[in-house]
Amino acid sequence: MWDRKYLQTILKRIDGRSYKAYNDIKGIYDFGFFTLHIDHVQRDPFAGPSLLRVEVGERSLFPLEIIENHHQRVVVSDFIARVFNGSIKRHGKIRSGSGKSGVIQIDSGGQEVLERSCVNIKPAKLEVRFSMGLPARGRRVMGIEASRLFFEVLPNLVNDACFYKNLNKELLKEEVELYEDVNFLRAQLKPLGLVAFVKDGSILPRESGVSEKPMDNSVHFKTPKSLSLTIETPNHGPVTGMGIPVGVTLIVGGGYHGKSTLLKAIERGVYNHVYRDGREWVVTDPTAVKIRAEDGRRIENVDISSFIHDPPMDKNTVNFSTENASGSTSQAANIIEALEAGTELLLFDEDTSATNFMIRDERMQRLVSKEKEPITPFIDRVRELYTELNTSTVIVMGGSGDYFEVADTVLMMDNYLPEDATIAAMKVKDELPINRMREVNFKLKFKKRYPISKSIKPYKGRKLKLDVRGRFTILIGLERIDLSQVEQLVDTSQTRAIGFAINYTSKVHMDGKRSMRDILDMVNRDIKENGLDILAPKGRKYPNNLAKPRIYEVSAALNRLRTLETMKY
Questions:
Q1: In this predicted structure, what is the pLDDT of residue 324?
Q2: Per-residue pLDDT, 441
Q3: Contact 445, 507 (CB under 8 A)
Q4: Which one, of 449, 446, 443, lies nearest residue 514 by Cα?
Q5: Which of 398, 392, 427, 430 has the alpha carbon at shortest distance from 411?
Q6: Strands 27-30 and 2-3, bridge-based pairing
Q7: Stretch 325-340: mean pLDDT
Q8: Counting beta carbons within 10 angstroms of the beta carbon of residue 200, is it exposed (0 to 12), middle (13 to 18) or buried (19 or more)?
Q9: Do residues 503 and 538 make contact, with C-beta atoms less than 8 angstroms apart?
């Protein structure tokens, strides 16, 4: 470790030299109240930025009671990252330079509170990882501006974010207690016979299609009396809201009255949210998976025979594979893959579903006989999913009252407020009976699959290629994984972690004998025990931009990898 004055000396010496001279600053420096690690130096001002870490020891003095368990450390780390990012905005960018000169970034995230690799906190040490664009004019070192970043800007960032005494203690306390209570509520869902809970006063509409912040002056959520319940929480006392029971729930109502908005909030309720997000008290079964049709996706050896069987030309739907799935086959595969990963709650919106997969009404049954229709519609499996597999379903349904026949609960949205329309729907069902036949010949089933390691090909030539292009694209070797239809993926850093996880598990867990569920559980366990760093490939020792993904999104990405092969037992 060198003294910080040595860093000043180097920067003065290389001022005006070729950009490659910045390699001389790589190392560890003692700044007195923190230690600076310069782990990676970018090759030019237009390349990916340099990677840095700061470590602060016991001087940070975070009270043990707010960092004594893993969940507390996650939310405190998230808070520190957001404060660090706010400090960057105040003290940040240099006045001039080429490329990414002077740009300091930390992976502070959006509205969700996720476990991240950018901040790691322990009782005796705090580590913050971030990137910095080293200043250049053209491709020449700007040593004076670099000195300002290191010796004026960086100490301010560390001072603002890394010391408990300088933080907004009341806000931090609120974030920690909120996180604890939301986790408590999520743990209470199953004992209470619920799949989701939405607190009264929640704000579900978002600011815009490209912003996840709450909409100003929007309707505050209010629970219908018949579905209202109060849960006593450890920190906030009694919390009252709507409990959505297990079973089959329909969300109905007129267009633009908030059906999809409620479903969107429920699907995001698998995550915790920041204080005052509006959805911070929307809590969902953590295994929930949003299902949709996805024309064109690849399917590898999935048993979709419970939904599609005996199609023309003798297509094998027990071991179904295709490079270009239809709406119905993709939706069937998405359900089976979610069940394979362990979901206990499926979410559907009719707007993004294949109509012929969801329902065949009485008139169509009369015109097209069952013998000529290979699709078993979802309406004829949805109750079985619950009674046999303990998997509940929430469906936005505005166009087919046939689903009243299979529903346990019917919510009607009226100007973004829910009404319990279960009794009214059952009355309609009795007054207008239908004679459609349930088109099921055998019990729902699916076969396990066993991924083959050699089908994961992360190299481009001899070079390991693991990268992302925004939130919805993973690059693995020569392959591009399209995740644009995976709606519960919320952060680019999750996407990056998924790419790393696929590479990691292919080397560590895939042996052709472990099932898809086994390897997903194993990678989840490894992250829990060792942190996100365990996923990083060789040469990326201190990743600064990973966020923990759910196993359901890891599964979705792996299943969309076009080279994936599985054993056929």
A1: 95
A2: 82
A3: no
A4: 449
A5: 398
A6: parallel
A7: 97
A8: middle
A9: no
Reduce the DSSP state of residue 149 to 3 states and report it: helix
| Domain limits, the chain | 2-167, 450-567
Mean pLDDT, residues 13-26 taken together = 96
pLDDT tens digits, 197-240: 999 999 999 998 888 999 999 999 999 999 999 999 999 999 99
Q: Tokens in use for 285?
A: 């079964």
Q: Is the pTM of this model over 0.85?
A: yes
Dump pLDDT digits (tens) for 405-464. 999 999 999 999 999 999 999 999 999 998 898 988 889 999 999 999 999 999 999 999
**3-state class of 553 per DSSP?**
helix
Candidates 560, 557, 550, 559; CA nearest to 287 is: 550
- The tokens describing 332, both together, are 């069937």
For CA atoms 551, 556, 557, 563, the dihedral sign is: positive
DSSP 271: S
Per-residue pLDDT at 179 exceeds 80: yes
Residue 321: strand, helix, or coil: strand
* Neighbouring residues of 16: CB distance < 8 A, sequence distance ≥ 6: 140, 141, 143
Q: What token pair was written down for 164? A: 């408990």
Question: 531: Cβ–Cβ under 8 A, 6 or more apart, which residues?
Answer: 117, 120
Number of other CB atoms surrounding residue 455 within 10 Å: 15
For the chain, the 3-state helix, strand and coil shares in percent, each to the nearest 5, are 35, 25, 40
Reported as a single tens digit per residue, the pLDDT across 88-116 is 999 876 656 788 889 999 999 999 999 99
Q: DSSP assignment of 212-223, as one string?
A: EEEPTTPPPP--
Distances (CA, A) of 67 to 54, 75, 122, 275: 19, 9, 7, 18
Which residues, at least 6 apart from 330, have a Cβ–Cβ distance to it below 8 Å? 293, 294, 295, 296, 297, 299, 354
Cα dihedral sign, 437-443-444-447: negative
Pairing, β 248-253 against β 136-137: unpaired
Q: Which two structure tokens, joined as six digits, stand for 410?
A: 């019917």
Sheet strand arrangement including 417-420: 289-291, 345-349, 392-396, 248-253, 409-414, 417-420
Contact (CB, 8 A) for 547 and 114: yes
